[in-house]
Amino acid sequence: MHLLAAVLATAVGIAPPAPAGPSNRAHPEYLVSTAWLARHLGRSDVVVLQVGHSDEQYRAGHVPGARFLPLAAVATTVGGVPNEFPPPEQLAATFRAAGVGDRARIVIYGDDPGLLAARAWVALDLLGQSARTSILDGGFARWTAERRPVETAVRAPQPRPFDWRWRAAGVVTADWVRAHLGDPAVLLVDARPVEQWAGTAADARSGHLPGAKSVYWMNALVAEGDPVLKPVSVLVGELWGPAGAERPGVRTVVTYCRTGMQASHDYFEARYLGLPDVRLYDGSIAEWNQLAYPVERSAR
After folding, report:
1. Which end of the chain has fewer CB within 10 Å, C or N?
2. pTM as predicted
3. Domains in the chain, start-ordered, CATH in brackets?
4. How far, in Å, are 173, 208, 236, 250 from residue 296 at the CA level?
5. Dihedral, 278, 263, 5, 15 alpha carbons, nearest 10
6. pLDDT for 142-193, tens place per residue?
7. 145 with 118: CB under 8 angstroms?
8. Which residues pair with 292 in a beta bridge?
9. Which of 230, 234, 207 minimizes the C-alpha distance to 218?
């Protein structure tokens, strides 16, 4: 684990990872359990964010002390393509207004099985905050299934200084992808359902970027109703390994989907597993088709 991650993890009670088998490069600090969060509720050095399309579910009930983050803050329309990141300065202003500060452990969950939390996590990663940012494993579904406390009070956050540094290389353009098609050092990963990757879906956007492999994001979860991430050994052995993530010579992993949302979960998975140089093609197939760039259609 990087030194900063180790310091932050120790500060909030997350043990550093133990190097064993395929997990020797993983980042378990990117996930926290519901039990961990329950133990740390109310601490000033832990900030909880609930991401949602609207605040309706948040107002109906949320983890005590959680602050609401609208999905629109991390997914907007750019150049006719929906669900793109806004400019870095705007993202930083969002988290400044949310009061996450510069030192607290940030824990994120969403209204869905995982995409919304992953999207916010990627935003914070690109802002240089991944060492202190975690997704709540199992999300609100696991939290409520375990009958943990829920509140409906809406707490207005106090804006706090937020120091950030944008990792521009973490997001690639269509032209970057096109220039690296066929590059054995670059692994393109499609996060959509396999029928969309294969081109068998009744969808004009089906088919994949030339050479891309399929890693459907929901296959990383135990179940849609219990969205806990599968063990590292399973993620590597059944999903990312067969896709070529451990192929000798692979130095960069690029995730994409239709508009960048599902790809955000694959991006999180790849970073969680410690894969090298993970990047996001945020425009994804929606932008790729706008540019009339080539796609492939094939069986798995």
Report:
1. C
2. 0.92
3. 3-145 (3.40.250.10), 168-290 (3.40.250.10)
4. 19, 5, 25, 21
5. -120
6. 999 999 999 999 988 999 999 999 999 999 999 999 999 999 999 999 999 9
7. no
8. none
9. 230
